[in-house]
Automatic annotation (TrEMBL), chains A, B:
Source organism superkingdom: Bacteria
A Pfam family the protein falls into: Pyr_redox_dim
Family (UniProt): Belongs to the class-III pyridine nucleotide-disulfide oxidoreductase family.
Recorded GO MF terms: oxidoreductase activity
InterPro entries on file: FAD-bd_OxRdtase, FAD/NAD-bd_sf, FAD/NAD-binding_dom, FAD/NAD-linked_Rdtase_dimer_sf, Pyr_nucl-diS_OxRdtase_dimer
Name the record gives this protein: FAD-dependent oxidoreductase
Classification via Gene3D superfamilies: FAD/NAD(P)-binding domain (3.50.50.60)
Length: 457, 457
């Protein structure tokens, strides 16, 4: 008799796991059932801001594989079906059809939790008003675009200044809205140290975004119909026909919590290196609902990124398919685009490093993305953190134009290999005038960091 | 009494060494004398094709620091002065002033050989005719541009299809010449495997370059004035008012050879890791005149690239300045631009790997430089070599549009860290739709290579 694999959540992790398991084990060996509470499966959540902005024409473009395509590969994908209870001793899942309300218990041999994350909604007055959107799923994106199209007013407020907030602010500007961003941080792009975030501020202001920093949102003012009309702060209010929450996300693990599965400090599921939930050999979890090992700090962290989610799905599907694969951890890489500014980070920010008990030197250098004399050479700023005494690379942040973002990959690999900044100075990186100065900006930073480590005690 | 550092050759290695030594030791401690036989110092040789094409307006743009600027920092830079003999037991250099013919012996405590490389000129009839150019120094570039400007005819032939040949072919097209490239290889871009070179052929033909492959040049036909008029092959001839040699370079080590210094198979000087000539504690060498350790094959190789030359200069200047630095070796990274095609390689080609006694699997994958649904997503082809059984990464070649070239840096760092392709599959690379699909093309290749290694025995 075939084993049954039950997957909860049909986006990056869930469907990668299902597809990879199917590749390794045919339908006669393994039955695969997937529950998805939303209206879409296998889509690029990271593409939503570009759909909102109009860069990407329609939601379908973001969909890698339709439910029908999955079903054609013998994956029993049940849309609009929410898993509402786990019976772990009994190895079964209770699900509800959101259209009919029918509830069903489904037994499993292998269970995959790929429940994703939900936007953080602080308990403020009016936070659940009409017109206030978190943007995490394609359904969220669909709802937001509908609201933007039908909105009578043109004022939008983005609350929070992480990369999703920044990307959404740009998308809203391009949709013709007046955009205000309110953040309690001192600079936008909270995934960077403030000194690097300051470089992003300029690009955002240049786009016409009003930036309100160092300011807490205290609530929303709503009209008689319960629709948001303004975002409130201690001192004033900002008119808002649409509000986008960019305050980050939290793991969607209520179901797992109720079933008593082990959760970390962030609320993310705890797994082993094969992505099996700790203490449970027949339950896997991955993507935005788990904690991952930060290979630089040695700590467990929650990072919601499609790239990790896909890798987790691959590892889970390989494991359930009878192969062997692990997810060793992350180094904290993230890249983003703000107008024509490219923003990247990997490893630890200063605060992260301090919290982890690390002492370090920082350097910030200015260079260019191409040879200085080559047409189109634009400034690039690289900040580098190196551990005191050992000189081990701890983190890199880059802000610049063309070629800035993916340059951070050099540091991502160096972090993975636990290189020192001095070892990095000898890296044999690609050099030709259209692509780099003869000393790549990352090497210039590594040289400066090497000197800083040598000078330090 | 101050020590005296004598440097032969005033480009990347020589002047980096002189500048770094000066930074660490003042003029009261260290006298620095530099001999340069040419008319220019401290320039970007790699920028010459872009000067010929017109992308870079003038030679001065390629000059990082003028002789006067060097002299202002107490570096006694003697231009148009050729070192013609080394007296190693007597620790002195004989130089000749090329304008006056005056010859002088200069004693040294520390000697730096930074004599660069010269274009290979096979002993063919007419190879030294007027109108036949190697392009290695800024003087060469100056001579070529003068010839292009004054040429009555518009036919140019590039002999050889390495990256300099390819860059020069594009530059000549942009100067309004009809360009034929003749190469004995089966495809252009001999720094790639032929299957990847085939992707470059298309771009070159698209630019209007006539490609003659699999063909040996047998000589040049010259006119009564001794000016080249055609490039000859066994079967036919190609009209040529200008010929550019792109057959590679050889280390310019005649001086060193006559002095009995140790040379490798390529004719490049042999050094230790601190760039001291083997067996000579007071003689350093670096840049295009030395052999370097290929960290992937374990062999000594000759690679003429400004990026290595600058690093060597830095290491030499640090050593002579009393500090400590080494150059551990290269992994064979090179990037280039052909029209809007980006071309990159690092590590070993198939032939290199075979010659080194390595057995390996190869995979070639097609992906895109951005998320497939993102505007401007263009194809990218990645070829990867992984060692049989161990799965160690051996080499990567990439051909694509925007973002292809510098992606090779991921592999360059992975090679340095001796990662396996399976380790690479877990790399935390930058992902956002404008910069990469959720599986970066390099990761897609690493996954395919991992499967190939697993399938192999």
């Amino acid at each position: 008799m075939a084993e049954r694999m039950v997957v909860i959540g049909a986006d990056a992790t869930g469907m990668s796991a299902a597809s990879q398991a199917r590749r390794l084990r045919g339908a006669d060996e393994l039955e695969i059932v997937v529950f998805e509470k939303g209206r879409h499966a296998s889509y690029s959540a990271c593409g939503i801001p570009y759909w909102v902005s109009g860069d990407v024409a329609e939601a379908d473009d973001l969909i890698a594989r339709t439910p029908e395509e999955h079903r054609a590969r013998a994956i029993d994908l049940r849309m609009r079906t929410e898993a509402i209870e786990l019976d772990i001793p009994g190895r079964q899942v209770l699900s509800r059809d959101l259209d009919t309300g029918a509830e069903t218990w489904t037994g499993y041999d292998k269970l995959v939790l790929a429940t994703g994350a939900t936007p953080i909604r602080p308990p403020l007055p009016g936070i659940d008003a009409d017109g206030v959107f978190g943007v995490q799923t394609l359904d969220d994106g669909e709802d937001l675009i509908e609201a933007l199209v039908s909105s009578s007013g043109r004022d939008a407020v983005v609350v929070g200044a992480g990369y999703i907030g920044v990307e959404m602010a740009e998308a809203l500007i391009r949709r013709g809205f007046r955009v205000t961003m309110v953040t309690r941080g001192s600079e936008p792009m909270s995934t960077l140290d403030p000194d690097m975030g300051a470089l992003v501020r300029e690009a955002m202001v240049g786009m016409g975004i009003r930036l309100v920093t160092g300011t807490e949102v205290t609530g929303m003012r709503t009209d008689a119909d319960g629709h948001v009309r303004a975002v409130l702060t201690a001192d004033t209010e900002y008119p808002a026909d649409v509000v986008v929450l960019g305050l980050g996300v939290r793991p969607a693990t209520d179901l797992a919590r109720r079933a008593g599965l082990p959760l970390g400090e962030s609320g993310g599921l705890l797994t082993d290196l094969a992505q099996r939930v700790r203490g449970h050999d027949d339950i896997w979890a991955g993507g935005d609902c788990v904690e991952v090992l930060d290979l630089v700090s040695g700590e467990l962290v929650h990072i919601a990124l499609g790239t990790h989610a896909n890798k987790h799905g691959q590892v889970i599907g390989t494991g359930i398919g009878g192969g062997y694969a692990t997810f060793p951890g992350v180094v904290g890489t993230a890249v983003s685009k703000v107008c024509d500014l490219e923003v990247a980070r990997t490893g630890l920010l200063e605060d992260d490093a301090e919290r982890a008990g690390l002492q370090f030197h920082t350097v910030t250098i200015e260079s260019t993305g191409r040879a200085g004399y080559f047409p189109g050479a634009e400034p690039m700023t690289v900040k580098m953190l190196a551990e005191r005494r050992t000189g081990r690379l701890l983190g890199v942040q880059i802000v610049g134009r063309e070629g800035a973002a993916k340059r951070v990959d050099i540091a991502a690999v160096a972090l993975t290999a636990r290189m020192t900044v001095e070892q990095m100075t000898a890296l044999d990186l690609g050099y030709a005038p259209p692509f780099s100065p003869v000393w790549d900006p990352v090497l210039v930073a590594a040289r400066a960091a090497t000197r800083a480590v040598a000078r330090g005690d």
